[in-house]
Amino acid sequence: MPAKSVAPVGLADRAILFAQLAAMEKAGLPADRALATVQLPGGVQNRVEAMLRLLTQGRDLAAAGQKSGLFTPLEVTLLQAAQSAGSPARVYERLAEHYAHKVTQAKALQSRLLLPAAVLVLALLIQPLPSLVAGNLSLFGYLWGVLQPLLILTALILCGRQWLQRLERPAALRAGARDAWLLRVPLFGQAHARRNTRDFFESLGLMLEAGLPMFEALPKACATLSNSQLRSDFLGLQQRVQAGAPLAQAILPLDFPGKPQLASLIRTGEASGTLPATLLAYAARESLALADFQEQLATWLPRLVYVAVALWMAYGLLTGGGIAPRLPAELG
Question: Which UniProt keyword terms apply here (predicted)?
Answer without folding.
Answer: Cell membrane, Membrane, Transmembrane, Transmembrane helix
